[in-house]
Every structure is written in structure tokens, then in C-alpha cells.
Design a protein that fits this description.
4 copies of one chain form a homotetramer. The first copy, chain A, contains 11 helices and 11 strands. Chain A has 335 residues and is α/β, with parallel strands linked by helices. Chain A is elongated and about 70 Å long. Chains in contact: A-B, A-C, B-D, C-D. The interface between C and D is large, with 46 and 46 residues.
């Protein structure tokens, strides 16, 4: 992947572009990095990789992408350029130091893949003269400027595969299984996975069921309606101790009940094909925007199309409400 | 799943609804059937299953869904109510006989899951008084009234998983691999899978490359640019004998070249979680439309939202063009 | 699958055979049931299904297998004839009642798929005149009469897939991840999955590391040796509160550490092909043994061959020791 | 993974060891390479990677493994050190040149992962003074000194996953599907996958069915016995044109019949956990044997245990016969 002199090179507003990932890792981040590197070369830009997120940026952990076989990462989970927490980046002096690292290497633009916090960093760099583009990268799908974020599709599949397994045991033993899924404070993963797996109860922060309400539903399903199995999908951060709740359900209903916290298995894993399709296009679009002299924009996949809007706006949009469909499908799945 | 008397039952415009699948099987058909059966019961309707598509309909192969454990099929490939070719349905007398079968059982509405041909049948039944709703079910994604059809997402994953495997061998041996994927006359599967797998050349019917052109690209990639590997994704129905083309490429470039026709592995398999999410909502929406006294409509998933429009319109919309992105990503992937 | 009169039928020592599953469900149980049903028919026997394990047996929940499409279950997780705990079966009166249920239907033989406890039941039935054959069915691999049990191969893959995902996140963030896997009191799943995933520390009951020892290894790996990532695989029942241990490791080493209890995802899921290969042969062999007038035997897959031995002996064999290889591979993986 | 001075280093018979892969790529080769590299370092040896098989060996394409992050490859398909055909290695002058390359770098030992042909090369190097160990690496399982070869388990799963998909379509449309699987001249993949998928007919080179015989079985199954579906698994190299045979079956039986050649999808893909477990142990054992001053040995996994024997003997053992079980399971699956 040696860099070739492209005919149109002199027309480009920038010559060098760097990429970093920030926040929790998400499947498809690597697909996006690969696409950015390759689209940059296709346009005649020199791509650089920033290792360890904003921390690495500030410390100058920046290397040319040309030495890396990025194609190998198209279907790999995680982020091969690493990610790191770095609250120090809120300090302006730190950000100026980061800018200096880029200046020193002649890098005019930075593409940031991450969530809300990462977008804030990108916006602040934009205001001090670094051209920045943000890509939504998080399994939680909680960036309101995009219908879907990089990582969401794959995390959904990971959850669904595991809930399918749990369903097998629930059925074989007529047990009730409570499964806690990620999503930070957003109900997207719970709602999508609950519908996809036919969960008899889907609980998100929009309506936190009391233990009494849950017990009544379990009793109705398993004791009165004699259902073969029952799955409850719960978004994280709602109940302190699911294990204790499971025990209480079991005591009151006599239905053997177990709780499973899917936890850290949800963030890794190979990105799905559709994830890679979306991530590749987002990454390419970031390069195209920079070549059109744009900066300070967040890319989204909205109503099935690529869009870009000011990062500040991306951060303040309302998020979709799911309560109506979680209630509806909980009821349908109880039939 | 015994049928319960629902309070609102008397208000409903229909009492009984049947479901059939027609055309090639597609992952997610079973998820949609399950959703229809359960949504029907939730609304207080009696669901029936028509076995073997329009053929079974005409022959009266119709049974109550209440005896089937539909939940087991939420994640199963194929269609458990079977599908069949039945050109006889173009004959009006045959259709009248089909209608009689429904009348005899008091079934007022029919939900058809399938492709273009299936939609035609549904439209014709609608004109003779059967309330019909069409759901787009085909891996080919070639129904223009929906951005995505039931089956497309899963077939995409099946292709991508297999191309990833082929990539391993291509890399290990520096071979060129030509992979033919399905899609009938639509390039959707080729385009999406080509982008998702980083295919160095994506060929659809919008631009059929000559063998000479292909050879030049292989030579450039593998001999001049010394790339590790090369994948060419080709839509079906474009070249008569890929094996012969592979041999010609090998002769002219000295790059070992193999062709693989993915063929019938693309249509089966478990539906992905996202497929199940979409199919479940489409199926439920079909029941909701019937309960709103609608008929003759085709359901779509357009710009990320459920829509319904007259079947006749669904059949005549233009399809998206992919040439621009297949060309663009072929070039980016060649970097 | 209507039962055909076979020429050799009159020679058989039995005419009817029943199957039950007992204990925790395991992938491959369904493949074994299917094989038993089909092998029975091939031999000219009438197969019956006992639903809900020994409980269903005692209550007479026994139905002809000929009405079930067993082929559909060859690749399905769980057990479609259900399993149940039933300590009452230790009572001889209960067992005599169970025998009466079989006698009433003219069923002379019973094949039991399950673990230790299930084998005890089978042995006791054997002593009161029911011909019994035991098949090792448990993900834990803790039946010493077989190198591998039905379910072990598939559970291993489920664990490995999930640990691979966890590795992605461990790498992306340089975190230490502690993963608790099943196995009851056997270290087989921990050892196999730890080696397969390159775990830097594998802990089974053969050597329970102190928290201090674990902290030292984490510190060596992540702080002194600057490794990219670290996975600790721990067998269940060893530590009370992994979450607390993770926090302590983090405090002492400054390495972000998380614990994940894979829990109930390990028991369900589609059986692997190899599992199905083994389970199918075990099931078939059970029928062949009954046709040879054998009873009271446990089937094993030992040194890559099918074997059968008296159930009593199966229950008392020593189990393999893993300490040497868990220690060795922990060290190799720390390189 | 910097090389550390180990206390016991001076006692070792060798100091440097190289690894190469040869022949068709197979899942698990990378896991074995990783294990060899890490086990070498654990023992205090310096590991080297030979790129491009015997060709690279002869040309001196040999690099220290210490610069490669081998852990990343534990679950990757293919071989990251590449493989190549190199018939020139039959020439003694070429082999002497290869030995010189090793001598020049002070490398005393070579571990070869591959099939029959690769073993021959290893044996010949052994005779001219290079210490060699052979590991069985091929999906075909056709190395008689090992019950299972590296790659076989994973290829089996790839086939089974794809045949399961094909089964869905076969069922949905009552079609007969002929699936050709790899195995060179060995029936192992056909036999194992045929049993695992319940194929109604399994054909290997031990008994090539005539088209007439196949037609009779299809007619019996689909027309007379009214089976839902039918799968025929055929080993490669038996029939010239399966497509033509499918057409003939369809003409004679009126059962829609399709043929699928799984082809190159079978060789790539992530190794299964069990594959990685076996490959890791084989790789480690190779290092242990070299440290015990052994050479000219082939490693096997026989009756569930690691063994080593002279390469020459490995090449001449008889292979297992499958005819009895392919016939038996074809019949059982036809029930």
C-alpha cells in the first residue's frame, strides 16, 4: 500500500489525516479504520494512526498507517489502535499539546471514532483549528445523530446468539431466565434483542417494573398459562441485584429462575457484514468530507442514508422512545 | 397458546387470517410467520397456516396455527409452512378455487410472504375480495417498495462468512478467488457483500466487465502491486462459466485463480437478530393493518420505518443504482 | 417415519424402547434422541419418548416417537423432551411405579441420556428388570467412563467464542478479564477453553490460586512485561465473589480488571458437527446393544472409540488430572 | 515477547528453531505456529518464521518471530506465514541450498506443518542433518499417523453449517440437494459431515454409487416415502459433473434436484476451540521433542493422545475404512 502520487493531489485542502478511537471498543471500529486508511490513499492523502485515543494523541503516539496491513482488520473485533480513558483531555492545555503533536507531523485533520465523550473532544479540537470529523462508534447506539452506531448491529447479534442459547435451557427445564444487556442508559440493545428473541418481558429505563409486577407476569406465563419457557431482557443500570430478584421470583412463583449478566461479551467479536458495510461507508465519507474542506462534522446513518451535521448539533438531539414497542412486543410474546 | 376472547374482539373487521409463504425460501420468513400468529392472537384473531404456498391454498392445505409451537421457529431458516412454485395460479379459475377454500373455513384475510410473483398473486386475490397484505420475503432484496427484504440481511451474513473463509485461503496462497453470489437480477447482495469483505472487484449487471478488463485488474493487483490476496465478487447470471474465466485469468497472469459459486448455501440458515427484529415488526404490522380494515397493501421497511402502500405501486417502483459505489469501493479496495 | 415391519423383527429381544433425558440440558442431546429414534426404526423397534425425565417416566408422560419430526432437532440445542430434577426417584416405590408405566405400554427398554445422577437411576431400573443403557450427556465432561460427554464439545465452542470476544476488549483497553466457566467440580471446560483461547492463567480446583498469587501474575504480565491483554479462566465454585477479586486486583496493580460469569449461556446452543457425529453414534450404539440383549451398560467414547461397560463401573472410575497442563499452558501463554 | 535468558538454556540441544507451513492452508495452522513460537520462548529457544513454505526456506525468506504479535493469530484461519507449492524441493541441490539458509542463520531445527508432501520434504531434510518435526496440517484428515489432523475439525464445522443451510431450503421446497465436499481421496469429511447432518446418502470413494442407484434412492425417499427433504453428501473426485447428474435425477424422479460444490469455502475460517486445543498441544509437543534431542518425527493425535513416530512410518500406515458406517448411517437417515 505504498502511497502513490495522485494527479489531483495538489487540489486537496489537506495532505495528512490521522485516525483515533476513543471510548469503549465496538465491533466495526477496525472496519472503519481500514476504510479511512484506504480511502485516504485512494484520494492521495497520507493516513496516520493515533494509538491509545486522546492519550496517545497528546503523547504523540502517532505512526504512519502505511506500515500496517489494515486489510487484516476488516473483520476483527475491538480496535487495533487501542482506546483509553483520558479525562485530562478536558484541560485546554492538554488539548493544545495534542494539537502541537499533530502540527509537528504536519497532520491537518483528525477522524475520531467513538461516543459522546469522544465527540466533545473532537469538537474542542475543531475550535482550535484541527479539522475533525466524528464517527459514531459504540455498541450502545446512544448517539442521537445516527439511527445506528458502529458496533450496535454486531452487539445485537452477540446478544441474540447468547439469548438463543439461554432459551434452549429455559425451554428444556421450564425455567425463567433474566438476561441483563448493555446499552448504558439507552434501551436500544434491550429493545432490539428482546424483540428478536421473543422475550416475554422487555424492561428499559423508560419503565422500570417493580419486582411485584415481574412476579405477576412470571406467574401468569409459567404457572397459569403453562408456557414452555420465559425470557426477561433487562437493560443495565436498572436493578442492583438481579440474582436476588431471581431468587425472590423463584420463591414466590415456584418457577426456577436464573439471572445472567451478559456483561463484557457484548463489546467484542467480529463485526457483522452489515456493520462492515455501514462502517466502511462512514469511514470513506469522512475522508470525502475532509477533501471537500469540511470540519467539525459528525457522520450519521439516518433513515438509511449517510449524513453529516455539526458535532454540536449531533450531541443535543432527542433520542427515540421505545416504550410503546417494548410494551407491545412483551404482550405479543406472552401470547 | 389457546385463543382467548379479547374484549375488543367484536370491533374487528375480520375474525380469521391465514398466512402463506411463496417463492424461494428466505431466513426470517419463519420469524415473520411466528409474529403474525402471535400478533393475531394478541388482537383476538384466529390465525391459520397455509402449507405449500398458493398450491396448498388452492388445494385447501390450511390448518389452525394454534396447534403449532411457533415460538420454536423464531430463529429457524427456511419456511416451516413450505413454499412451492405454482404457475397455475395465473389462471383465474384456480384463484377462485383458492378463494373458495378460504370461504369454506371462514377465513377473510391472507398474508403473503414472498417476492414479486407472490405479490401478483396477492393483488389478484385482493381484486376478487380476499383481504391481502404482502410482506417482502426474498434474499435478493429486489422488491423496490422496501429498502430491505426479509432474508437479505441473513443472506448477506452467510455470504460474508463464506467470503471471509475464502479470503483466508486467498491470502495464504496469494490466489485470486472469484465468488459468484445470488441476487437474481439485482446487485444488492453482490454490492453489500463486496463492500463488507473488501472485495477488490465487485461486478453487477450494471457493468459487466470483459474478461480482458478483469485480467488487467488481476495483473495490476497481484503482479504489479504485489497484493497479498484478491477477491472478485460477481452477481449471478452474468458469466456463463466462471471456471473457464478463472483458468483464462490464471493462464494470462500466472496468478492461481479459482471460482466458487456459493449457490444454495445462501438461502437457508438462521435469520440474524436484526432480520428477526425487522421481520417481527413487519408481521405484526400486517395484522395491525388488517385490523384497521386495510387490504391490497405491501409492507416495506423504508428509510428505517415501516410503511404500507398499494401492492400495484410496490411492483413498479424503480430500484436503486449501485454502479457508483461498486466502482468506488472496487478502487478503494484495490489500494 | 411410519414404522415398517422389518424382516428381522421377530429375532429381536425387545419390541419397544423409550428414551429420556435427565439432569442439565446439553447440546447434542437432541441429536442423540433423533439417532436413537431412527436407529430403532431401522432395527424394527418402536421408539417412545419420555417427556420430563424421570418425573415424566413415573407419571406416564410417554408418547410414541413416530408422531414427531425428529429430524428437525438434529441441530437444536437443549432437549425437546425436556429434563427435570426429580429427587423422588431415589425412593424405590417411585421407581416401581415408573416401571409399571413402562410395563403398561409394553416398553421393555429405556435409554437414559444424562449425568451421574441419571446413571444411578438407570442402574436402579436395571436391577428391577428394565433394560437400560446410559448415554453420557452433560457439558461438564465429568463422567469418567467417557473421554468426552455429549455437550462438552459444543459448550467448549460457546465458551471459546465468548472469550474471544472478551479478548478483543481486553486488548483494546489493556484490561485484565476474569472469566468464570462451568464444569461443576471438573476442570475440563476451564482447561480446554483456557488452552484454546491462550488464557494467561487457568485455574481449576486442582490448584486454587490465592488472590495474592493472582495479583502478582497480573502485575508481572501487564505492568512489568507490558502485555497487550490478559485473560484468566477460572472454573466455577472456586471463588465466592469474582467481582470483588477483580476490584482488588485493580486496586493493587492499577490494571483495569473485570470479571464475567458466563453462566447459563454455556448450556444451550446448537451442537457442533463433531458433537452430532459423536452423539449420533452413541445413540445408534445404544439401540444396537439393546438388540444384542444387553442391559445395565453405560456408553463411552474412549480413546476415540465407542465402548460400553457396566454402569456401576462407569460411576467409579478416576478422572483425568489437568494440573500439569494448566500450569504449563498458563506459563506458555504468559510468554 | 522479548527473549529471556532461561536458566536451563545451556542444557538444550538446540538454540534456534524455524517453522514453516506447506501444502493447502488449514484452520489451526496459525494456532500451532503461535504455540510453537511461545513454547520455544518458554523453553529458551529463539523461534524463526519461514515465509512461503519450502520455497521461502530455499530463498532464505526467514525472519525472527519475536517481531510478530503471534497471539493475534490464535483464532485466525489460513496461515499467516503463507504456503506455496514448490515441486523443485524434490531436487537435492535445492534442499542443500535450503539447509544452507538455515545454517547461515544458525537455525538447527525446523518444524513443518502440512500434509504428505510436506512430510516428505521434512524427512529428506532430516536425512541431511536438519532436525525436523512434522505436524499434520490439512483439512482432509488423510495423514494416517494421526486420528485427526489440524484443520479437520474446523472444516467439518464449516461443511456442517453450510449443509444445515442447504437443508433449510431442501425442506422448504422438498428438494434433493447434492453437496460435494473436500477430502482429496479420503472420505473423512464426507463421512463425518454426512453423519452430523443426517444426510440420506453418503458417498465416498469406497463405494461409488451409479446414477441409477442414486435415482432409485431419491425416488424411494421423496416419492414413495414422501420425505420432507433429502441431502446427498459426496466426496470430491468421484463424479465429473454433479450438475448433470442433478438434472438427470430431476428428469427421472420429478424431484427438483440441485448440486452444490462447497469448494474453497472449506479451507479457511476461524479454527474451532477444539482445533486450537489440539493444535496448541501438537505445537508445544514439537518443541518439547526438539528439546529432548529428537528429530525425524511426525506428531499425531492418536486415540486421544499425543504421539510421535518416525516420519517414514507415518507415511505408510493404512487409513481407516468408512464404508460400513457410511452405509449404515445412510440407511438410518433414510428412516
Amino acid at each position: 500500500m505504498a502511497l502513490k502520487k495522485k494527479k489531483n493531489e495538489k487540489k486537496l485542502p489537506i495532505r495528512k489525516v490521522a485516525i483515533l478511537t476513543s471510548g469503549g471498543d465496538a465491533p466495526g471500529m477496525n472496519s472503519a479504520i481500514r476504510a479511512i486508511v484506504k480511502a485516504a490513499m485512494w484520494k492521495g492523502l497520507e493516513p496516520y494512526l493515533v494509538y491509545e485515543g486522546y492519550k496517545g494523541l497528546t503523547e504523540g503516539n502517532i505512526k504512519p498507517a502505511s506500515n500496517v496491513n489494515v486489510d487484516r482488520f476488516i473483520n476483527q473485533g475491538g480496535t487495533f489502535i487501542y482506546s483509553a480513558r483520558y479525562p485530562e483531555f478536558k484541560d485546554e492545555k492538554v488539548r493544545l499539546k495534542a494539537k502541537k503533536q499533530l502540527d509537528k507531523m504536519g497532520i491537518e485533520a483528525l477522524i475520531v471514532i467513538g461516543g459522546d465523550g469522544s465527540y466533545h473532544g473532537a469538537q474542542l479540537l475543531h475550535t482550535i483549528g484541527v479539522r475533525t470529523i466524528g464517527l459514531p462508534g459504540t455498541i450502545d447506539n446512544d448517539i442521537s445523530s445516527s439511527d445506528y452506531t458502529i458496533g450496535f448491529f454486531s452487539a445485537l447479534e452477540t446478544i441474540v446468539q447468547n439469548v438463543d442459547r439461554i432459551r434452549d435451557t429455559s425451554r428444556s427445564h421450564h425455567r425463567c431466565m433474566i438476561v441483563e444487556v448493555m446499552g448504558r442508559f439507552a434501551g436500544d440493545l434491550a429493545t432490539h434483542s428482546g424483540i428478536a428473541t421473543g422475550a416475554e418481558l422487555i424492561i428499559t429505563s423508560e419503565k422500570k417494573y417493580s419486582i411485584k409486577e415481574i412476579i405477576d407476569i412470571v406467574d401468569q406465563q409459567m404457572n397459569k398459562n403453562k408456557k414452555e419457557s420465559m425470557i426477561i431482557v433487562v437493560a443495565e443500570h436498572l436493578y442492583d441485584n438481579l440474582d436476588k430478584i431471581a431468587k425472590e421470583i423463584e420463591q414466590k412463583t415456584n418457577v426456577v429462575t436464573r439471572s445472567i449478566v451478559l456483561s463484557q461479551v457484548q463489546r467484542g467479536g467480529a463485526p457483522t457484514g452489515f456493520e462492515r458495510y455501514v462502517a466502511t461507508q462512514m469511514g470513506t465519507y469522512a475522508i470525502e468530507l475532509l477533501c471537500e474542506n469540511k470540519s467539525g462534522l459528525a457522520i450519521g446513518f439516518v433513515r438509511n442514508q449517510l449524513v453529516a451535521e455539526p458535532i454540536l448539533e449531533a450531541l443535543t438531539k432527542p433520542r427515540p422512545k421505545y416504550l410503546e414497542i417494548t410494551e407491545k412486543y412483551s404482550k405479543i410474546n406472552q401470547e
